[in-house]
Amino acid sequence: MEGGSGSAGQLDGKVMQTFQKNFVQVQSILDHNRVLINEINQNHESKVPDNLSRNVGLIRELNDNIRRVVDLYADLSVSFSKSMEADSGHKRSRQQG
């Protein structure tokens, strides 16, 4: 019985590491997006043609970053679901055993 709870503990630890890693990445991307948005706003307000042209690239980068955040959250969702399924399976096997 202890072996089952030990593997559940390892799984929980692995899931927590994944969560932490992904949340750190998400926060870093969101922080960078804040900088991008500020620069985009400043460029827009300046009405300088070169600055407005630069916004095209900045907006593309912002969109790419948003896609990355969505992908990271999707990975978190899958990890969480797998963790819940595994945890549920361990509880069932202990109850049956």
UniProtKB/TrEMBL annotation:
GO biological process annotation, one example: rhythmic process
Top-level taxon in the UniProt lineage: Eukaryota
Pfam family, one: Elf4
GO cellular component terms, A-Z: nucleus
UniProtKB keywords: Biological rhythms, Nucleus
Family recorded in the similarity comment: Belongs to the EARLY FLOWERING 4 family.
Protein name in the entry: Protein EARLY FLOWERING 4 domain-containing protein
